[in-house]
Specification:
CATH topology of the largest domain: Rossmann fold
Low-confidence stretches: 90-94
Number of helices: 7
Distance between the termini: 46 Å
Number of strands: 5
Main location: cytoplasm
Protein name: Vesicular-fusion protein SEC18
Largest sheet: 5 strands, parallel
CATH architecture of the largest domain: 3-Layer(aba) Sandwich
Strand order of the largest sheet: 2-3-4-1-5
GO cellular component, one term: Golgi stack
Mean pLDDT: 85
GO molecular function, one term: ATP binding
Helix content: 40-55%
Keywords: ATP-binding, Cytoplasm, ER-Golgi transport, Hydrolase, Nucleotide-binding, Protein transport, Transport
Radius of gyration: 20 Å
């Protein structure tokens, strides 16, 4: 099975929501959600240890049950913060980012590889991710999550104004279609913010 997915696109477009839904659809264990910058640690070896801890539950179950093990999903937000091109000085110029990338590669397809994991990486900057992570067998499925088009914005507005309409709080003069047209280049999160502000 695919071991890794990379979701990339602007902030506020629903990458985390999509990652969680993937886990539900695959009937996986509850996902572990890790924020990239939280993995980095100024102490030697601590960042690598943080990466090992992410995989500990999956590793334990895989040793006990082998291919009968349940699927463990690790959602890695802001992947670009720790998995920049090796040699670029990610992680404060100490080479910590390099060793974090190496740790991830080992778990995905190296000597310690696990067949019961799905790593979902998320980033706003795909161009900054180490190329080695994007090869087949690693974060091989790459999906761009872009800004919604006008129909998408209308759907988002309908979802976020649903309670207002149900409770007759929303004025009849509000034209959701016109609002959708006026919110070009807005992310889903920004549209939700517009509704909350109203």
């Amino acid at each position: 099975h695919v071991k890794g997915i990379l979701l990339f696109g602007p902030p506020g477009t629903g990458k985390t929501l999509i990652a969680r839904q993937i886990g539900k659809m695959l009937n996986a264990r509850p996902p572990k959600i890790i924020n990239g910058p939280e993995v980095l640690n100024k102490y030697v070896g601590a960042s690598e240890e943080n990466v090992r801890k992410m995989f500990a539950d999956a590793e334990k179950e895989y040793k006990e049950k082998g291919d009968e093990s349940g699927l463990h999903i690790i959602i890695f937000d802001e992947l670009d913060a720790v998995c920049k091109q090796r040699g670029s000085g990610a992680g404060g110029g100490t080479g910590v980012g390099d060793s974090v990338v190496n740790q991830l590669l080992t778990k995905l397809d190296g000597v310690d590889q696990l067949n019961n994991i799905l790593l979902i990486g998320m980033t706003n900057r795909k161009d900054m991710i180490d190329e080695a992570l994007l090869r087949p067998g690693r974060l091989e499925v790459q999906l761009e999550i872009g800004l919604p088009d006008e129909d998408g914005r209308k759907e988002i507005l309908m979802i976020h104004t649903n309670k207002m309409r149900e409770n007759d709080i929303m004025d009849d003069s509000v034209d959701v279609q016109a609002l959708a047209a006026q919110t070009k280049n807005y992310s889903g999160a920004e549209i939700a913010g517009v509704v909350k502000a109203a």
